[in-house]
Each structure stands twice: as structure tokens, then as C-alpha cells.
Amino acid sequence: MIYQGNAITVTRRDTPSGNNIAMLTFDLKDESVNKLSSAVVAELGEAVKAIQAENSLKGLLIASGKDVFIVGADITEFHGMFSKGEGQIAEMLEQVHGIFNAIEDLPFPTVTAINGLALGGGCEVLLTTDFRVMGEKAKIGLPETKLGILPGWGGCVRLPRLIGADNAIEWIAGGTENRADAALKVGAVDAVVAAEQLEEAALDILDRANAGELDYQARRDEKTSPLKLNPIEQMMAFETAKGYVAGKAGPITRRR
Fold it and tell me: What is the pLDDT of residues 233-247, one digit of tens each?
């Protein structure tokens, strides 16, 4: 056991090729679903530090012990957090970005096994890893925009680099829950398999990455580099974004 918490455990696993990897499992006690409360985020930070302290690891697999992956942040905490003002929100965002960046910067390949709903912050967690394997019936998305909240844990940055600006605009502005086939088509995930094959497929990806068949560093560089758009493409993406958001928001009603 590398780490044990109330919502997260990290254990050692061997891949079929004998690589020693860490398996981080979200499984919030006494709850039917996983959600990212402030306590769970704090645990995630502790778990990542424990993983960083291990010297022999060759990969990380992030998974869920429940029927869903992570349904999002704990919205019951929002009112109290927002009432504390801008400084408190900025501090929270800095903490989360530090943890997510640490996952993204681990010195070995990483993969997420998405077994069910992965929404909001849950979707932003899986965007931190180099690869993603999705169950056939799973869904991913950033529906917090329907609550008037931007995906502030990296969704607005990482998603466009994975699936392109136009697709990301539709996902984010639309707040859609996207099926596995749609996610695979745009490149949000690398494979779609039956639920019972998720772990096997994820471990295979780690083995292939360690063998050099899959370039995990190139995938990582793609997510941490500027969007490759020339000035004309930038203008087109911006105009597309304005039109799409306006279409979703509807006409502005002025008060008299």
C-alpha cells in the first residue's frame, strides 16, 4: 500500500510485462458516487506526494471503485466557498492546479480508466493523464457551464489541445455529456472497450508506453504547449466561439 485515505487508495500493481505501477483508485467511503470535495482534493494531493516519493514506479493508472468515475466537484461546498471572496477562490484554484500539474509531470506514463460518468472536475482529472481508456457505456463532459461555472481546473486549457479548439468550444459551451464513441472520434480518449476489459486495456497501454511503442512524452507535450493555430485560424476559432456561445445563450433581454 502506497497510500490509504477515506476516498483514495494507491496500491502497487504489476503489468503483464512486469512493470511496477501505482494504481490510484477513487472510492469515497459511505457514498454511492465519487465527488471532489475539498477533503477529497486534499487526499489527492497527499496521494500524489506519496507516488512521487516512490522510486521504482513505471506508470500510474487512475481508476474508480464505483459504478461511476467521478461525477464532479461537491456543489454543496460552492456557496460557502464563493461567499469567502475572490482570494479564497484563487487559493483553491492554485491548490488544485498544483495537484493536477503534479500528476501531469510524473516521470512515467499515466493512464485513466473511465468506467462511468466522468463529469466536471472528474473529466478534468482524466485530462491530466497521458492516455485515456473509456468503457462503452461511460460518458465524459464539462456540464458545469450550465451552472454558469467555467471549467477552472484545467478543462479550458487541456481539452482544446486534445480535441481541437472547435470541438472543445462545443463541449464546454454546450455542457454536453459525451458518449464513448463521440469522445473517441474527436480524440478525447485513446480507446473504447467493454467495461470488464478496462483495466486490462489500461495496463497494456502502460506497457506499450514503457516499451516505446507509444510516445507518452509527445502526448504530454501536446497538452502543455500552445495551440498550433496560425493568425487566421485563431480568428476563425474566436468567431466560431462567439457564434456558438451566442447560440447557446440566446438573445439578451434588456430591462427597462
Answer: 888 888 888 888 788
pTM of the model: 0.93
- What the chain holds in terms of domains, given with CATH numbers, is 3-228 (3.90.226.10)
C-alpha 39/C-alpha 29 separation (Å) is 12
Q: How far is CA 234 from CA 104, 191, 231, in A?
A: 26, 29, 5
Q: Is 121 a catalytic residue?
A: yes
44-48, 53-57, 242-246: which range is least confident on average?
242-246
> What per-residue string of b and e applies to 29-61 under the rule 16 or more CB within 10 Å gives b?
eeeebbbbbeebbebbbebbebbeeeeebbbbb
- Our answer to whether residue 188 is catalytic in this structure is no
- For the cut 70, the answer to whether the pLDDT of residue 59 exceeds it is yes
Check 73, 113, 201, 209 and give the catalytic one: 73
**C-alpha to C-alpha distance for 179 and 137, rounded to whole angstroms:** 7
The question of whether 104 is a catalytic residue gets the answer no
- Report residue 107 as a C-alpha cell: 516521470
Candidate list 7, 124, 168, 202, residue with the active-site label:
124
